[in-house]
Design the sequence.
């Protein structure tokens, strides 16, 4: 997130013989400290730190290249971010971050990054992405929650088309495991058969009809893929136990805590990689999927992601891959999009008076110029692991926040129901039991707002591919930035506060394209304006 202080280098994670050294200065009386993170699947007891003084603990372990999230586990119960590290993850889960390059150098994000002073990875160029994704707006849905089955979703494609959606992301459609199942339906991300369709959703013909109908409307379709695990009762746990992570006694387990319904894959097995690759190629070739979204790819070896990209591109050259990670290295040879959740958090801070537009600009610069040049980020207000944005920001602030999202760079993502203030979604756990969106709560005015914003983004190329610059002297509670390209410069202003805000008088000359509460250089409470301005 927004880095507010310079940490002491001696206590930050740093390169040392044997890998990366982590240091924790504990309070007196602490009995044990463990290190858990994406590098060990968040196992709370896999890396016990050594006490090297009365209060200092340290551990050195090999860490592969890429972005990693981590926490310290104190006395086996308290999971805390690294107090010495100001770099906190963008995922809303308060994890500490570090990035390691191929030479085992530790690249901590530094404050003050900008176009004039980029981070070391910005010298590299990100993988080129297909235009259908780069220019798109993504809509994520669960088939049973949104339409009941494939035919029900197909019947609602006109709704999505009218909204302006052009990338459809479908949550897992394979059968879910039964053993250890949570709820009556189970976790859709606990897959029991990677090659099968859940019969409750339809058959192969109805799935193909859905994909074809989406294509006929100009929509790309992305399949959600659970990458690093299966359900604990997948037949492979019996026929191919060597494909899984195993304890010393040979029993199969998944290292991430509190996930007993999962069995974790061991990607050192080349036959496992070959099977998963072939299965994905079959889904893309047989049903015409345009892309895949990889669940929990932050704990999947990057070299396997690179292999998947090469193999899937042979089937579909303009394939798009979405990585559920914040890893800079995923952009180099594997994935088109990584997550960008910091926009949501910075909007909350601005709405609550804990941050201002200058802080938002610092965050944007630090997160942009620490990534490879041209890296596409998926920006979102809602994610499957988060609750509704109206509950997070307040219902009134939802509209100006949506204006910011749809006017920013990157690829915007909308979670099903977000566009009409659907109230019952609290996280993907609601899918563990029979669940459908509450369409009776439909907010037509909010839907029309999203519709207008998406249409504006489609009409003005600068909102998709233009440069981004933040304005100076923006009043507290408001966000202000520009999107610029050849022949056009748009100004975006949004008031996230409950009081009117006054902008620089020069902005009174904006010609509004889409606005609410804009009078001269003043924005009413929770107002917004997107308009053209002279260069």
Sequence:
């Amino acid at each position: 997130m927004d880095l507010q202080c310079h940490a002491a280098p001696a206590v930050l994670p740093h390169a040392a013989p044997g890998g990366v050294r982590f240091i924790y200065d504990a309070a007196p009386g602490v009995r044990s400290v463990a290190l858990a993170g994406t590098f060990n699947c968040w196992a709370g007891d896999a890396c016990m730190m050594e006490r090297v003084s009365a209060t200092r603990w340290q551990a050195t372990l090999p860490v592969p290249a890429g972005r990693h999230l981590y926490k310290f586990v104190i006395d086996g119960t308290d999971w805390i971010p690294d107090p010495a590290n100001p770099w906190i993850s963008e995922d809303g889960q308060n994890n500490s971050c570090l990035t390691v390059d191929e030479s085992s150098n530790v690249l901590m994000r530094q404050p003050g990054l900008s176009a004039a002073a980029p981070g070391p990875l910005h010298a590299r160029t990100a993988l080129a992405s297909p235009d259908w994704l780069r220019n798109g707006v993504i809509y994520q849905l669960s088939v049973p929650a949104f339409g009941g089955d494939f035919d029900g979703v197909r019947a609602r494609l006109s709704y999505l088309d009218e909204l302006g959606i052009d990338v459809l992301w479908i949550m897992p459609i394979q059968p879910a495991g039964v053993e250890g199942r949570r709820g009556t339906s189970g976790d859709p991300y606990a897959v029991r058969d990677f090659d099968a369709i859940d019969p409750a959703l339809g058959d192969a013909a109805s799935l193909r009809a859905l994909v074809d109908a989406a294509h006929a409307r100009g929509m790309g379709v992305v399949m959600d893929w659970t990458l690093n695990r299966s359900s604990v009762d997948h037949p492979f746990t019996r026929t191919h136990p060597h494909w899984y992570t195993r304890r010393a006694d040979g029993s199969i387990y998944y290292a991430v805590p509190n996930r007993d319904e999962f069995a974790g894959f061991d990607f050192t097995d080349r036959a496992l990689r070959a099977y998963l690759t072939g299965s994905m190629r079959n889904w893309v070739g047989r049903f015409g999927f345009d892309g895949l979204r990889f669940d929990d790819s932050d704990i999947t070896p990057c070299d396997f992601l690179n292999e998947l990209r090469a193999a899937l591109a042979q089937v579909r050259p303009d394939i798009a891959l979405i990585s559920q990670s914040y890893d800079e290295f995923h952009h180099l040879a594997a994935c088109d999009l990584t997550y960008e959740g910091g926009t949501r958090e910075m909007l909350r801070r601005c709405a609550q008076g804990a941050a201002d537009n200058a802080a938002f600009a610092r965050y944007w610069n630090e997160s942009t110029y620490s990534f490879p040049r041209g890296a596409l980020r998926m920006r979102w207000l809602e994610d499957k692991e988060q609750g509704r944005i109206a509950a997070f920001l307040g219902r009134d602030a939802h509209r100006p926040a949506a204006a910011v999202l749809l006017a920013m760079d990157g690829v915007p993502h909308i979670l099903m129901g977000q566009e009409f203030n659907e109230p019952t979604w609290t996280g993907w756990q609601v899918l563990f039991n029979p669940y459908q969106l509450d369409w009776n709560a439909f907010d037509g005015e909010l839907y029309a707002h999203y519709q207008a914003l998406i249409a504006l983004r489609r009409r003005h190329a600068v909102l998709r591919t233009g440069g981004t610059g933040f304005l100076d002297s923006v009043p507290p509670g408001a966000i202000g930035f520009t999107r610029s390209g050849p022949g056009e410069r748009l100004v975006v202003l949004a008031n996230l506060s409950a009081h009117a805000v006054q902008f620089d008088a020069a902005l009174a000359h904006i010609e509004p394209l889409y606005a609410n509460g804009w009078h001269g250089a003043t924005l009413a409470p929770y107002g917004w304006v997107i308009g053209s301005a002279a260069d």
